[in-house]
Amino acid sequence: MSTTTAPRRAFDALITERGLAFGGDYNPEQWAPDVWREDVELMQQAGVNLVTVGVFSWATIEPTPGAREWAWLDEVLDLLHAGGIAVDLASPVASPPPWLGIRHPETLPVDRDGVRLIPGSRNQFSPASRVYRQHAAAITRDLAERYADHPAVRMWHVGNEYGQIDHGDEAAREFRLWLRRRYGTIETLNEAWGTAFWSQHYADFDEILPPRRMPYLVNPTQSLDFRRYSSDQLLECYRELRDVIRDAGASQPITTNFMGFHALTDYWAWAGDIDVISDDQYPDPASPHAPADIALVQDLMRSLGDGRSWVLMEQAISATSWREHNLPKSPLRARRDSLQAVARGADAVCYFQWRQARAGAERFHSAMLPHAGADSDVFRGVRRQGDDLKKLSPVAGARIDADVAILFDWSSWWAGEEPARPTARLNTMAEITRWYRELWRRGVAADVVPAASDFSGYRTILVPHSYIVEPHTAAALHRAVEAGAHVVVGPFSGVADANAQVLTGRSPVLLRALVGVSGEEWGGVPDAGSPLAADERWDAGRTLPEPSARILAERLRSEGADVLARHTIGDLAGVPALARHDVGDGTAWYLGAVVDDATLSALIGDVLAAAGVTDAFGASAGVLPEGLEAVRRGDVLFLLNHADTPLDITVEGSRIDLLTGEETNGSVGIAPGEVRALTERRTW
Ligand code: GLA
Predict the structure, then answer these.
(1) Which of 40, 95, 133, 554 is the residue whose CA sits 20 to 30 A from 606?
(2) Does residue 487 carry a pLDDT above 70?
C-alpha cells in the first residue's frame, strides 16, 4: 500500500470537517451576478458543501490573448466561502478560447483522416502542441498564484476528462520521441513491431507516423504503442499543470476527473499522480445492467486509489442529453445512484452541474437546479440527498475489504481489440463485465487489479480475458495459487507478449504449467453455439444448466488438469472447455471458450465456494434475491433494492439504519429503489 501524502490528508481533513462532500460543477460565468447570490442560498438549502468552479472559464478569464479577468472569480469565490461552500478550483484548460486556435492552428487536433478540428465546441487542443501547453501553463500559473491561499479553495481540478487524441505533425514528433525513449534504437523498434511483415521496416525514427488513415490494416504494435503514447502524452499535460499549481504554493489536493474504463487513458499509469481519484459516471437508466456495471467502475476507482475513498465528480441528477434517447431518472433513482457510490467507497457525491444551462450544447442536460427552478421534484430530491449524505458521515474514510481480485489492464485491452483476430465478437469489456456481474449478484466485494500486481492476499483472482500476459504476471499468478488462491483464467488470455506479438508454443504459453491444459488453435464458434457436456466431477449432485460455448473456443487438451466440461459436437467434439488444476495449496481453473451466462454463473459460484469467499453478509456467496445489491463498507452494510418489488432480507442481529434511524432486528424490508445503511454501532 502506498503512503498517504499531505494533499491526500488535506482531502480527508476536509471530509472530516464538513462530512461527505456534496455538490457539482458550478459555472457562474454563464449567469449574471444576482443569480450567484441565489445559487449560494439554494446550495445552502440543499446541503451543498463542495463545488467545482471554472472548468470552462478560460475564455472568460482570458477573452483576448494575455488578458486576465479575475474580478468575477474573486467575487464568486468570496461568496461561496462566505456561504460555507468549499471550492474545487479548475484550471480551465479543457476548452481554449477560439483565438488560440485561430492564431495558432497548430494547437488544434487533427483526426486520423487528417482533418483539423476547429473551435466552436470544446476540447479543441492538441496535447502535443507546445503553444497550447505554454498557454495552458500560463493561465494555470496565474490562477494558482492568485488563489492558492484563498480560503474557499480546498481542491484543484486540472482540465476536464483528459481523453483527447491527435494525429497531427506535433503528435508525430512527440510519438517519435516517445518511441526513441522506449526502444533506444530503430532496430529494436523494428523487432518489437515485427516490421519484416508487409515490408514495413523503418530505417529511421523520422519515418514513423501516427497511425493515420492507411490503405489497409495497421501494424497492431504501432497501434498499441500509439495508444500508450497518447495516454502518456495526456498524463504529461496533467503533470505539467499539477506541478505549476504546486509551484505556485498550493497545498490542496489536486485531481482530474477520470471516465471509468476510458479507452484512451491507462489509469493504472495515472493513478499515482492523482491526490484523490475522481470519476464521472453516467450509467444509462435504460440499461437493466446499469447498477452492476457502474459498481464495477466504482470498484475500479477505489482500486486505483489503493482502497482509499474517491470522489464521484460528475453524474446526472436526471437525464443526460448526449445519448440519442435520454431517459430521466426519478429522484429516488438519482438518490440510489449516489448512495451506491458512497456504499462503494466515495466520500464525495457531485453532479454535472449545479444550475441547468439555458444556452449551449448542454441546454437539455439535467442539473441539480433545473430550468423549472427550486419548486421541482428534482430540487426536492437534491435536498433529500443533502440530508442523507449528512447521515452517512460515519462511513467517511471507511474501506471495503475484498477477497476477490479481477484483472484488468489497458495494454491488454488495447492489443486484444485490434482488428483481424479469430473473432471480432470477443470484447474485453463485455467479458470483464459479465464476470463481474456474477460477483455483484452475490454481494461479493472485488478489487480491480492491474497486471503488475502480486495478487497476494486474495482468495480468488479472476482473469476474464487478458490478451497480454507478461512473465511477471504469470509468475505472480503461479505464486498466488501455490499459496492457496483460486485463479480462473478465461479464453484468449496469455496470447501475446508486451509487444502484442503472439507467443509461440502451446497456449497459454506462460500459464500452461499453471492451468494444466494447453491449446493449439483459437477459432470462432458457429452462431448456433457449441454445446458442452459437464463432467460429473463438476455436475455431481446437481444439474447444471445446459452449457454452451459461443463466440470463441480453443482446441485444448488436458496436461494434468481435471476436465470439467467438453464440447460435444462437430470438430470440437471431446475437446475440453473447462478444466481445474490443483497446484500447491490452490487451484487454477481454465475456461477455453466463451460460455453462456448460466454456465459462467455456475463456474464462478463454484470457485467462490471452493475458495471460501463470503458475501457482504459474511455468508457463503450464493446468488442474492434479484435486484439486491449488498456491500459492506467499514462497519456499515449497505443494501440497495434495484428491483421494482419490495425485498425482505434477513440480517442477523440488531442494527441501526443510518438513513432512517430505525432499529432492525432480523428482518429488513427494502422498498423498491430504497437503500438501507445498517450499522451495528450507534454512532450518535
Ligand atoms: C462530461 C463533462 C461535463 C458535461 C457532462 C455531461 O462529464 O465533463 O462537462 O459535458 O459530461 O454529461
Answers:
(1) 554
(2) yes
